[in-house]
Structure formats: C-alpha cells, structure tokens
Amino acid sequence: MTATLLVTGGGGVGKTTVAAAIAIRAARTGLRTLVVTVDPARRLATTLGVTNLGNEPQPHEDEPNLWAAMLDASASWRAVAMRHADPDVAIRLADNEFFRAASEHFPASQAYAAADQAATFVQAKAWDLVVVDTPPSGGGIDFFTAPAQMADLVGGRLLRWMTGGPLPGRRLLFNAAGRPMLRMAGSILGSDLLERVAEFLLDLRTTYDGVSRRGREIEQVMRSAAILVVTTSDPAPVWEAIKFYRELPKLASTPAAVVFNRILPEGWATATSPVGASPVLANNLARWSAETVRQRDVRDEFSARYGAQVATIPWSMSPPTDLDGLAGMLEDAHGMPWGSFGIE
Amino acid sequence: MVSGKGGVGKSAVAAGLALLAQRRGQRVLAMEMGSPGGLSAHFGTGALGFQPREVRPGLHAMQMVRSDALLEYLAIQLNIRGFSGFGPFARAFDALATTAPGIREIITIGKAIWEVKEDRWDVVIADAPPTGQIGSYLRAPSTIAELVPGGKVRAQADMMRDMLADPKITEMVLVTLPEELPTTETEETMDWLAAEKVIPSPRLIANRVLLELTDPSTPPGPLGEAAELHRALWRGQQEWLRRLPPEHQLPYLFGVFTPGEVAARMCDEFETIT
Predict the structure, then answer these.
(1) Structural domains in chain B (count)
(2) C-alpha triplet B102, B105, B106: angle, nearest 5°
(3) How much is the pTM?
(4) What is the CATH number of the domain that holds A318?
C-alpha cells in the first residue's frame, strides 16, 4: 500500500523545501519514500540529487530509502493524447498547428501532465510513501482540476456548439458553416481558420474514452491522498491557502493541515528590551515583535474561521541546503499530522 | 504594465503608482488584468467591475472581464453589433479561447491598449498577469498576426504590437524580491523580454528589502536573537540584490498593515524616489 502526500501552496512559501524535509524524515523512519518535485531551486535540486533532466525516480546516493524525481514542467499532455489516438489520427494531430498550440498554451495541460506522471508513480506500488510537490501553474489548483478540464476539452464542448449536433461526423462539419454565429465568427477570423480548429477538435474527440478513463484514475489517486497546504503568514500566500482549503475538499480531500512556514519564536510577541539597551536593537526587536504578533493573529484567524488544523515550522536563519539541515527544520515543527501519511 | 512573480507584491506596487499619479493631479485608470481582488483590496473598494469606477477623485479602477471585453472588442474595434444569444456565444468563445492560442490574451491586452488610445486618461496602470504568464499576453498580437493572414483582426493586432513596443507609449515595471526563486524568475523574464523586444525594457523594483542594522552587538535574549535573525536575512538579501541590482528598493513593512495602508506606504516611497 502506497501512501500519498500532496504538498500544495502558493509560490515562494518554501513548499518544495517542506516536501523534501518530510520525505527525508519519512525515509529515516524506514519508509521507502519517493519525493516528486517541480522546478526546485538549484541548491535544493542538488541536495535531492535531481540535477539531471528526465523524470525517472533516482535512488539518492547518501540516503537509503529515499528516491527523488523531477516532473518535467515542459511535458504537455501531447504525449497523453497521442497515447490514446489511432496511428493515422495521431499523425494528423501532430501536424495540426492548433494541437501544438493547445498543448503548449492550454493552462491545464502542464498541470495535467504533472498529475498524470505523479499518479503513475503512486500506481507503481514501488514505494511506501510518495510525496508530491505540486506544480504552481494556475495558482496550483490546476493540478487538481486538470483531469476534468482535459476531458471537457477533448469531449468536444466547443465542437458540439460549432456543429449544433451531439456527436458530429466529418461531413456534418461542413454543414456547420451555414450557422449564423459561425458565419460571423468566420468573417472575423477567416472561415479557413475555424475549419482547421474544428478538424482538430474532431480528431481530438476520438481520444475521449482513453483520456477520460485516465482522468478518473488520476482523480482516484488524488482523493485517496493526504494533503498539506503550505503558506507563510504574508497576505498573498494566505489568500491562496484559503482558496486551497475551501476548494480541495470538493476536488480531492480535506487538507490534513495548513502548515505555516517561517514562524518567529512565540516568545518574541511579548518580548521587551531591557532598560539601557541599544536603541537600534530595541527598535529592531520592536519591529520583529510586531511581526510575531501579526503571524499569530493570521494563524488564529485561519483555524477559527475555517476549522483547520494548523502546523508551524520555525524561521531558520539560512535556508537548509543539505539533508541534515532539511531534516532538522522539522525538529521544532508543531502540529504536523504525521499519522495521516503514515509516519510514526 | 506592472508584473512580477506571484506573491512579490505587484498589486501593491501598481496601486501605489496609481495613487502617486492621482496625487499629482493626473487622470488615472488602474486596471486589474490578471486574477481579481489585488487592486480592489489595496484601494479598499470591494470588488471592481468592467466599467471604470472612480475610487478617488481622478482615479478610476476596473477589473478585466473577458466576456465584456469581447463584446466591446467586437462592437468598437470590429464594428460588429447587436447579435443575439450572447450567453451560448460567450460559453463557446470561452472554449475557443482555451484552444486557439492568443485569443484570450489579445482580448485582455487589447482592452488595456484601447484605453490608452482613448483620450480619457493621462496614464493607464495595469496590474498585469504574473511573469509566468506575461509572455503569452505580450506576444498575443504577434501570435494572432501569425495565425490570421489578413482582415480587421490582423490590422488590430498589428496596431497593438506597435503600441506595446513603443517606448513613448508603454513602460513596464517588474517587481521582485531579494530571494532566490523571484530573482531567477525575474532574470528569465528579462532575458525573454530582451530577446522578443515586444515591450520596452523594464524597470526593476525590489520589494520587502531589509535595512542594515547599524549596531553589530548581540546581547543575550530576544534582543540579540532578533538582531541575529535580521542580520542573517539581510546578508541573504544582499546576495540577491548584488546579482540583480534593482533601480529602486522598497522597505520591508513590519507588523500589521491593511492592504490600503500598504499601498499608501508604497505611494509615499515613490514620492521620495521619483
């Protein structure tokens, strides 16, 4: 049985670092652990041993039980769609400029490819725990909505509108050109352009069964996973965290905890400077004390308003860059729901 | 155009710049181009609509709504008016926009450019999409020009491309933080902009910069601990500021501030540097 942990959160909150630290801790408790990451900072990538391109899990040289893989952020769902297309359709698709554009620009496409790769690792049943640092595209929520969005696009919502029929054949496409809205759209964009879009969608439609079946498998993996939402106490990441916390129960499952990273020592909230202290340092302490109070207020409001379990990780003086440093950042963490992803 | 990696405070900078222009008596339009909520929070106005609303004397603010922008684009730019059944059309358009490249982006950026062309404003300040997406918006006019061989849409796209690239018309501000990931993403964006030349070269603003502590001592207790943390963070920031030197630095704001207070502080800072 492979436990899965999805680590989500806004950009710049240390999500990748937290995912790596959890994976190292899991590996050190004896769990065979794979950490899957996207676009890590260079030093962290080196520490995890994922400097090479490609997305095959690599066993870590210095840490038994730890594997690491980097999701290919440039991978589109092109490969996925092609896998489900007949050979002649696949050739037509490959030549179609709209397929190329859609696989590059469709916002959910990279998220879909990432979710597909992550689900494949979980289904391989080769690890006790798979920790996934989810990609940030589309605010990060795309990772969870992509399977449905893909099925929707491939399923031909646009195609049904263009042809006015439930399941058009190639011949019907040309009758469609008589519809008033299409005539109008054609006069703006050129009828040739619309025809090429429609042909592309017809070809894509043939992959629907395969893509939607795979989409359901991916959703199944997400629903049985534990989720952590990582944030700092700054307004923008907190706003993202609230969005995650409210949306994820519908898309996957209720997050096991909201992890506040870079937390200042609780004692600073009430700390005062001794009489005769240097004015520069006293002023400095007053400012960090105000910051500590603000952090506490943000956490209290989050747990009161949304009923979330709140965990905290202290602010370290310098970002941890080696395995021990990463493992160490969780030593003083509070409220981590270790049990929900199988760590004793 | 104000952009930056998500979470660096670009909405606050855009709001601060809009307030500065307003203070100087200019007629200002502030536009939320990306995800809604950023600008309105900093103006303390509640949700904004597609129609510009006066949020301070002389300062109007609006939020991009793609379906409204499309209607306006069809009506004003292409002279197509009065078709019925907009609901289904809007839904289908949305599907088309996710498939055909450049359409969603051209509608959005086209609205900003159209407001610049109109003589209603002295300055239009856009809280633009984050750096991860800004490329497809700035390149949208060229993308459309490549896909559409001729006609009205093509002519519009050519016009937009020229206005965006004109340094007398368009300026870009990139907001960053003195940290590793924002720095590398900003560098990548600047390289891309330099290669594509779709917009004049950006001005760089570093946000949340710590000031150096002038007292090097470390007394026991929280007084010394806070000093040590501050120095460690300051040293880390200096490394990134040296690697990517910004034109301006905005100070870290300690403690509790509402978004409105943050924007007002930014505006005061800009007053001192411009």
Answers:
(1) 1
(2) 80
(3) 0.85
(4) 3.40.50.300
